[in-house]
Amino acid sequence: MTAASEVLFNQSSSVAPVGLVATESAIELGQKIDNYLVNWARKGGYDVDTVLIESQCPRFSSGDGKGLIKSTVRGKDLYILVDVGNYNCKYQMFSKENSMSPDDHYQDLKRIIQAASGKAYRINVIMPTLYGGRQHRRNYRESLDCACALQELEAMGVSNIVTFDAHDPRVQNAVPLMGFDNVMPTYQVLKAILRDIEDIDLSKESFMIVSPDEGALNRNMYYASVLGVELGMFYKRRDYSTIVNGRNPIVAHEYLGNSVEGKDIFIADDIISSGESMLDLAYALKKKKARRIFAYATYTIFTNGLEKFDKAYEDGFIDGVFGTNLTYRTPELLGRKWFHEVDVSKYIAYFIASINHDVSISTVIDPHEKIKLLLEKYNKK
Question: What total number of domains does the chain contain?
Fold first, then answer.
């Protein structure tokens, strides 16, 4: 039996039986993860129907809530999956319907942890969108929510946190004694591009990576490195004399790099929120005679709606937007021709299997090797 097979198919070598609690915010993703884990267990000869454990966080009419786990978790290696960005979850308070905020989801996460504490063998949290992650540094008299939340989870007995494409992964310095994995789904993104854009040419002569700003440089540098193409970047020039909505407004995007003329451009970021910055970059690159613009964000939330991207697509400024299934996507977004979904559920299942056996993720799947094989297959076409 290979090392990977030992982890995926041999439950007897795990630290404890796996239990997966998918909170209301992440039921669809949890079911996909469960399918992989159950399939691997059955291949190993184990009679398993599901590793999902049903939970609920009901509310009183006053808005107070409680956490409830509906079956035993005693002795389980428990993984709690939560999407703190899922505003489609609702609750009633004083007969009024409210959308759940990240604060509400985080409180429900703590309620489930409380319900499991003292019973589960180990508690792990899978939080793709890191709670408070966008408030990653303190200016003047500001809170530092993410760092405080991580410390709170550690104090509650959480052993490991798994997140994806953290806005600033340095926030893990707040919990140096707790397991913290910041996962980058690069392989899954490249696989989706090659699947959906049939005429894509990833050669250095035809393709280029452009970082949207200095903060995203590392993730874009990795794409450029594995593909062997050139890297450009934009510098956000801000007006530091003014504060709008708590931030210094962007005055202009200055491009730094070689010519993009005639090339397909790929821009990777952690989040598309309003999307205005991404559109500004697309317009600027088109002025520089770029051929096609493909954008990617791990979290495509489109807080200002889809209309501006619809127009940009119709006018030929944006040719495609790639985003993961790690957070809630509206049915309207999923129906757009320009949107391409990147499924990360299998990667999460790999991480659960690895942590459950206390081994490195590279024992099960080596992302670098997977990317290499993917590109070799592409180059043979």
Answer: 2
